[in-house]
Design a protein that fits this description.
Layout (H helix, E strand, L loop, with lengths): L1 H15 L27 E6 L26 H9 L3 E9 L10 H10 L3 E5 L7 H9 L2 E6 L5 H8 L4 H14 L6 E7 L6 H14 L3 E6 L1 H4 L6 H16 L3 E4 L4 H14 L8
Parallel strand pairs: 1-2, 2-3, 3-4, 4-5, 5-6, 6-7
């Protein structure tokens, strides 16, 4: 942490230099009053864990990380070191990305250690593996899981996710929902793109939400399409149908990292094509 403080101090000095391009153009760069140089507070409010980003048991067509070979490194010693150095805020929150966190070698131990200290966790998981630690977090109300189901049927799941795990995921979701103290802590996501944008498939997804008792859903777009020619009209209409249908069903529905340009297009399609009470699209 001492080395980190020195590093941050140097970066803050560079930010003050007119001829240094560090962070120029970043939307998060802003001016603050006072002289903070030499007074760097080192107390983390959030910790994002992505040491295992190439470790995954899924083969999603919109992701290439699972093709990587690095298995990551033990996370718990890092967290314990931060704690020993008093670098973690009492209300610190931990976010697990990936890859797939639940197959990280020390996930169960590290997640349980975080929980015992009273900190919250947000875990992006595909739910192919049932995690006792995740179940415990949900039961205690100290964790939220975000699951990209991206389908409403086994056939489309395998087409999108690259593995035949639909039934297993639904079973694990049912176990988590039965355990969760708060249903909103289990969130299902639907990444809408050309492979799964049919309203019938989206309706099947919502049927699963209803059966499981899921109350919070998210929709997103395929980053490959966003970085390329952009999503098709059918995909934008599918996303519009998703948010409209979620509202009809009384679900809490949030967009997930959709650029304003495309969110505006989705909202426009909702107004033009889905302002009625159609449930089929």
């Amino acid at each position: 942490m001492a080395a980190y403080v020195v590093h941050i101090g140097k970066m803050m000095e560079r930010l003050q230099a007119r001829d240094d391009k560090l962070c120029r153009g970043c939307p998060e760069l802003r001016e603050t009053a006072g002289d903070a140089l030499g007074h760097v507070p080192v107390l983390f409010h959030t910790v994002s864990i992505n040491a295992h980003r190439y470790l995954c048991n899924c083969k999603c067509v919109y992701c290439d990380l699972w093709r990587g070979k690095q298995a990551g490194y033990p996370v718990l010693p890092v967290l314990q070191s931060l704690h020993q150095q008093h670098a973690l805020h009492s209300q610190c929150s931990f976010s697990w990305g990936g890859g797939e966190p639940s197959i990280q070698r020390d996930f169960e131990e590290a997640s349980t250690w975080i929980c015992k200290h009273g900190w919250g966790q947000y875990i992006h998981t595909n739910c192919l593996r049932f995690s006792p630690s995740i179940a415990n977090l949900l039961q205690l109300g100290r964790g939220v899981i975000d699951v990209s189901l991206d389908s409403g049927s086994a056939a489309i799941y395998q087409k999108v996710k690259g593995v035949p795990g639909f039934d297993r995921v639904c079973e694990n979701l049912e176990r988590y929902m039965a355990t969760a103290a708060d249903a909103s802590h289990v969130r299902l996501k639907y990444i809408v793109f050309d492979e799964n944008n049919a309203p019938s498939e989206i309706n099947s997804f919502f049927a699963i939400c209803g059966r499981l008792g899921v109350t919070t859903v998210e929709y997103s777009l395929n980053f490959r399409e966003l970085n390329g020619a952009g999503p098709s009209n059918a995909t934008l209409l599918g996303a519009a149908f998703f948010q409209t249908r979620a509202k009809q069903l009384g679900l809490k529905c949030n967009p997930f990292f959709i650029p304003p340009k495309w969110q505006d297009a989705i909202n426009d399609m909702s107004r033009k094509h889905l302002s009625g009470d159609s449930q089929e699209g």
